[in-house]
Model the fold of this input.
Amino acid sequence: QVQLVESGGGWVQPGGSLRLSCTSSASGDTLDGYAIAWFRQAPGKGREGVSSISSRDGSTYYLDSVKGRFTISRDNAKNTVHLQMDNLKPEDTAIYYCAACPLGLDYGLGYLIAPTSEEFEYWGQGTQVTVSS
Done:
């Protein structure tokens, strides 16, 4: 089991950038071995998987609407996963959640399929991202 905490949310104008970070909140916890995903939930909408990254082989997934604008990365030495969000749009406004899957998802394919709430068992509390002028 791992406890997660997100940071880096806030308000930004359209076209701006934010970098979200996900790390473990409990002393001694590590994200090593876990695949990490970012989900988001906008007001009145369901939760959707935005991006994910495998534990070690660097395979990633991106939601079509964020491809070319968002970049997920991880630094296992620093026990952190980042989501760099550039050229933000008002439709990106949502609560963003970090989630961990204990399977790692290191299949060597270079890509991952869309993450699901069922496979990503451990969740942070979320961080608000607001994009408006």
